[in-house]
């Protein structure tokens, strides 16, 4: 039995589906079934009961068994009624289309409860095309309206921008910029601005309503209607002839033909939709996001019952579920007209305070508006981000200069300045609708911890919060208000956090006598939502944050109202009296300042040394310890964890024992015995201790791991990065599968769009934190503990597979050819470039100074030799990068300044010189040097392939070997972006055909024969006058003379190189139309022959 309870306008309806199997399987327990269906009166019972009774089957049933009588009597006693007419045929042994010559039973039944009987409009048997079963499909129609939250969506792309701006200008202009000397006046002005914007939005922004439950009626072409009629006629004829085999086979053949037509129509309809949707770049990215969502589970319409973790009660009603979630997320909430008063710590005028501007700088408001992300859900006030951007500066050249000026910027600037001067965060910006969504990949969703809250806040409020966040971040960085080991906000990236930790591990491995490193990762439970606000304010006062900022943040944190929205239900608003609201621009820096208290305490207890390092990234904390044994590491970590508990206890933050993990790093190149056990030339044997033999840390619930995911990077015990590379390639493959949904080799967005999509959404998967883990130099410049060549090869191959899909190329296309034709560097070279850029940017920072402190030899035990002393991989890469790049950059700077001396700007003034002392100028030149170095490496990579290919061609004796037979056009070109312009104006099918022709890996017989394709017996063209190659069909083939002449007349030449470069569009279209390659069959039939006529009409 299975049951569901959809919510309707008149209450919940229980729908029970039952199945009673035939013997010898255990049958359905009728007593349990009757107990379930009699719990409420609005119930619908349906199923395959395999029971017959005269009241249901009519004359077809003579002697019902005991279960049939029990079911009949029980449903009647409960006031239920069978909604099928007695004698309705619901089952026929054999074919479902057959008309039975023998009596057939009524074993599929539908019962309605007493309160539901009057609302059942009909219950009958329906014929469903393609449904082949002995049973019939029963359709029951109930007159009721499902209760659901019908969310609407605003179609901002369909807005008439000019009219919208004009209407909003009139409404907002009427408000003016009144003086805002009090919080009441400020909030009144915000209400007026919101109402004016809402009125313009309601007038000019189209609304997309949710689709109906049944959906739109699907329209078919006439050919499909004809096929359906033929299929139905064959089915009836088969039925009348008692399922004659020939007639049955004819019916099935026509049914398959109809399915094929429907599938083909659906495919072409979808491809037309993709083509129209991806004409602009934003459309390609939007469709790619849709493709990614197809791989995800469908969102739940209703939330399942939750189990309260405190009382262990089962919460079934929406109200109980909201209560359970609220208690789990926020420990302190309240209801009522006002929230409890929040105490702000006393502000001593004599205390030390740092200064921060209390008004916006000139032009700052424009940066804030431009930084607003698009495509996000709007807050409770209905002012979406798109509205603010449309009301900013217009780019319509038809408008006058005054009409193009920003409408919203002066208003937002006026509001922000008032908020800062009054130290007041308006009440409208503190309302939120918090949506509960399920966390991906959880086995069950019956506990609150498997659901995630997402707060939807006012967009105007977020602009105000972003302005405050910028000031607080600058203050924190300039005056070191957060410790050096606190990451997760501006200029404190994941890469730097991981580098800080692993720097200790590599230094430990580089020490002598031998040392060992152990890592512990800790997760804070409900970090943001459990922050004690009064403690946070005291921290701000203690760190010297100015009074006006402290008062503003106090206002920001107090009187926050939340309406919790779960699938199918939204609660009333209530007050949240604890925590920092998530989803606001101000939250990360506030939490960083709050958690800095914890790190400050730990840093006092455990001062920075080469043997201990703690690091915090938002709510993730980790500690790494190095000593002369794993046992000593465990003792130190146990003590440090106890100190961490003591430091977090006053702040009300709890640590999750279930998310505490430890990993003992094991140097893969250290041997068990002393150095005297091997000869000087003998390599160091690897020695990995089994996990079970490693000691445990004295923390309850902590788990030993062989692999730990830290800040999105998978660390293994020996830092081989094998697991991380495996995860990267899997993610890249998964992402390409979503792209495959919106693109094929002959349909979809253009090659340029798919290439851009790969570079911006697939390659960053591998680039994430690459400077930390991609430590690699070639054989002559190897460094210790660098990533293996096999893993580098896997990364390069993974990208090559992706690029073949991007280009629509065959899998046999050589990796270097794909990279060169698409102008995409091999992944290994690209990752090496990222590492160089990271290190050059980091050279002038405090983080780099921290790394060098660990490298210093006087802080470590005596090393074995001077060579070991400098063998730290990070140290080597930093030193080499700094020496080489800076030397080249200084030379580049001189050349750039000489060139700039001869140029002027738009106003005619000489361009200023770049100066090495200026950080931005220095980074600009360094970046150019690194990019030039990457191009040089790509050129060498391409030339090495050409040389290797030429050597193989010379050594090849088989005349049919494909390298010996031809040299494709792409091999005669240098590495660079020149080839991309050949594909710029081409459709997807044309770009694929051009790629095949330029690379020589094309579906012509010469190539197919060289790779030994079945059924290809020779490499001759069908004309038998030469090998079936690209050159032959474009220049020599007599069978294509007339078609080729029309092409020549169109392009005014017959040079193959010019055809595949300058006139690539005409050549690709011609090849699709006339080369009869099966892959382009449909596209070729759709290509009109007239496009190859002479321009003069010849």
TrEMBL record:
Biased composition (Polar residues): 1-11
Record carries keyword Acyltransferase: no
Gene Ontology MF terms in the entry: catalytic activity
Compartments (UniProt record): Mitochondrion
Pfam families: Exo_endo_phos_2, RVT_1
Domain Reverse transcriptase positions: 418-715
GO cellular component: mitochondrion
Protein name (Swiss-Prot/TrEMBL): Zinc knuckle
Organism: Colletotrichum fioriniae PJ7
Organism lineage string: Eukaryota, Fungi, Dikarya, Ascomycota, Pezizomycotina
